[in-house]
Design goal:
Number of strands: 7
Shape: globular
CATH architecture of the largest domain: Roll
Number of domains: 2
Largest sheet: 4 strands, mixed
Structural class: alpha/beta
CATH class of the largest domain: Alpha Beta
Strand order of the largest sheet: 1-4-3-2
Strand content: 25-35%
Helix content: 10-25%
């Protein structure tokens, strides 16, 4: 067996409002809309691919699995981490575009800098400077 070699990775997020979520990622985080249908949108920012969709019932290849939006804003199961060269500059730029952060950039005990925002579905977005 040869070594495992993934070609690319993507994240799929179930969202409450597809239009609102596309607007957020496109207009505030500069994702490009690559493909769009009534139920699913593929976005790209650099090498990151992000799928947004509103729901997905069970299918033959994922029986008994319903994908649905989260319903509790104080809980999340996803953090999208974006590494940047300058956390403060990115924080200021995104704040000027209407992204609301939980706090200003912070230095965690292990170093670097980071700050968190939420998308329209309450998923956490971490801006991280290693």
């Amino acid at each position: 067996m040869s070594d495992l070699s993934f070609q690319q990775a993507a994240t799929m997020l179930v969202v409450r409002d597809l239009t609102e979520s596309v607007t957020f990622y496109r207009d505030r985080l500069q994702f490009e809309v690559v493909e769009q249908s009534q139920w699913i949108v593929l976005l790209r920012q650099g090498t990151m691919l992000l799928y947004l969709f509103s729901t997905s019932p069970p299918t033959p290849d994922k029986p008994d699995v319903n994908l649905e939006p989260m319903s509790l804003p104080e809980r999340t199961c996803v953090i999208l981490v974006f590494q940047v060269a300058d956390c403060w500059a990115t924080y200021r730029l995104l704040s000027s575009r209407g992204v609301v952060f939980l706090t200003e950039p912070h230095v965690p005990p292990w170093g670097g800098q980071r700050c968190f925002a939420r998308d329209p579905n309450d998923y956490l977005i971490e801006i991280e400077q290693p």
